[in-house]
Amino acid sequence: MFNFTFSAEKPIETSGRADLQLVVSVILLLGLGLFALAVCSASYAERMFDDSRYFIKRQLFSIGIGAAAMIVCATVNMNLIRRFLPVIVVVSLVLCLLTFVPGIGSERNGAQRWITVPFIGSLQPSEIAKLAVVLFLANYFDKQYSLQNESDRSLVQGLLGLGVFVLIILLQKDFSTAVFVFTVGVFIIFITGSTLIWVLPLIGVGAPAMLLFIFMEPYRVQRLIAFFNPEYSQSRWNYQSIAAERAVSAGGIFGEGPGSGLFFSSRIPEIQADYVFAGWAEAMGLFGVLAYFCLLLFFSYRGFKAAMCAADRFQALCAAGCTALILFQSLLNCGVVGGAFPATGIPLPFFSSGGSSMVITLCICGLLMNISRRRGGPSNYSEYTA
Description:
This protein is mainly α. Helix content is 64%, strand content 4%. The chain contains 13 helices and 3 strands; from the N terminus they run ααααβββααααααααα. Strand 2 (111-117) and strand 3 (121-123) form a beta hairpin. Helix 1 (20-49) runs antiparallel to helix 11 (276-308), helix 4 (85-98) runs antiparallel to helix 5 (125-146) and helix 10 (239-251) crosses helix 11.
């Protein structure tokens, strides 16, 4: 059932330093995202909070916390992470369930996606769940491979764990995040070498279930109709999408420039969140968009290379899953802004304003740096296996 071809089979030269090119790509993406947020959000922040730097200040605070978390993730022994993985999984599940507790959970736009934390503010547990799913599946499939008898290997418990996370997020009415987590889970299952006999039925069952959840909520149906019929309800369901497409088109090849006022982007509500890429495209044009994608692909290349050169299968699967989280989420967000996908509410890593997203993104980067610097032969980690 399992081939596990996506892993390093031969020891390579030990390196005690993180991949410098990976570190540089993270710094550049952070700088680019901060600059884009400053350019795009100034007008909206001035209107709403009488402070054009409001979102930049919040983002810098989140980056500070995220940078500290990234350093921890980049330096802690991966064996220790495996040892405390059950705690990480349980805590992430409990935090997701707390969104349903009155007085703790916070409802916005009809969704129960946030909890209120004293002295910190709002926290979105589903962001933590994304990383927890990757760690859980990486650990599970590595343990399955270690079983000598191939007939003892099974997908069942891994699928159940993935299903629990997806179901809880669906109950939060965060459909797009649930689909995204499911997709990343299927990706990890696929790269383990699982045969299509298991992967195709998983997709075959998951796709109809997702369609069922779409038709359970009228607003999801409205968004789907608006996507296939752009002229439908332009003042409500299609307003942000149309405004974003106009902003992207207005950027042309060279862009309007960061100090142009960005006429079309200023018409997008809450542009600092899911549609910040539209402002970047209007300001910097096609060249700016291509520069971003080149940087994103270079980051992804270094992340997947870290996976291929990892010391063991757990770290290989973890690095591949973490890279996929940022790459897939970035492409999905840009696709929504460009009109290729329906509106999802998925933020753009490194760019969108949001503390939970930024901190988890930097934690993911920290884990990739950690794995990239632990490239010796397979280590003795069995005593730490969760």
